[in-house]
Structures are given as C-alpha cells and as structure tokens.
What does this fold into?
Amino acid sequence: MSDPGYWDERYSSAGQLWSGAPNLVLVDVVAALPAGRALDVGCGEGADAVWLAQRGWVVTALDVSGVALQRAAAHAHDAGVDIRLVHAGLVEAEIDPGGFDLVSAQYPVLAKSLGSVAEHALLDAVAPGGTLLVVHHAEFQDGHAHDGIDASDYVGPWDLVPMLGVAWRIEVDETRERHMTAGAGAHHKADVVLMARRI
It folds into this structure.
C-alpha cells in the first residue's frame, strides 16, 4: 500500500521498523560510483540516505510517511549530515527530470499507474550518465499478496526492464540471495536487482 495513513500506522507500531543499516546492494553498487546527486525513493527511516550523505552524496529522500521522515531526520541529525527530505510519493513530488546521478528504489511500494506515469517518473529522474538501481523481493514477481501487499499493484524491476530502450545500458538484471538478520524484511531470502546506466 502507498497510502500515507497505512505507513504512518505501520511505522508507529514499532520504535524502529527496519534494520537501521543501509541496503547491501546499494552499498555494493555505490562503492564504484563517484559521489553526486542521489534520489532515495521510499527512504523509510533514512538508513540509505544517511549512508549516501556520509559518502559525499547530495541526497533527496522522499517518503509518503511523515513518521518515517521524522525518524530519517533524527537519524541524519545524529549522523551530522544534511538530507533534503520530501513528504510525498514520487509522482506528487514532481522531481526534476534528469536531476540525479543515482536514483535508488530499494523495495519500493510504488504503485503502478495509468499510462505508466510513476514508472516514467522514476526513469526520467536519472541524469545522462547516471545510474538507476531498483531492488525488490524476488517472490513479488508472482503477483500475489505478500506481507499484506498485493504485489501485482506495484512496480518491480521486472516491470522496468521492458521500458529501457536504446538510451539505457542494463548492467545488472539478476536474482541474488539476500542475507538479513534484523528488521521487518529479514524473512525475505532473495532479491531481484536491476542496475542500468542512462547513456
């Protein structure tokens, strides 16, 4: 669900919902990239955004949950970094096209949209030469309900691959084992990883 009320309630149900550590695929990918402008789509409690900012990235982080963003702001303050936090979904945020050297969507709850508006907004945010990184739980490919979420309603890497035309070079499109021991998503054991470079 991308409903703000649902996510505010879910975040409020626990003092900390996720592990507090940056996502491992992001860490692996960013190690090879020069710092630039990053967009963190569905930033949650801010672990990825803070980690990026600590490595010199200028970070815009957005989420529909005000509770999550309060925690992200506190995390950034404690870490001594500045992050631009946006309380909105991707489409509502009206992100500038081509504005980011890295667009990261880690397990996004990004609703599919009529005319693929949300999907195009995600792709269009990547600057020429920039990197798109989208990671999602492998079992969501089956289109069934998982964790109370109907996977068929939401965008996954598998939906974006057919949209990447000649202006893109796909560098990674694969399923990887996932090893997490903490946080609400620790029971997921495999991820689909899409990494593409805008030419």
Q: What stands out?
A: Helices lie at 4-12, 24-30, 47-54, 66-79, 117-124, 157-160. The radius of gyration is 15 Å. The longest strand covers residues 126-137. The beta strands are 37-41, 58-63, 84-87, 100-106, 126-137, 145-146, 149-150, 168-177, 190-198.
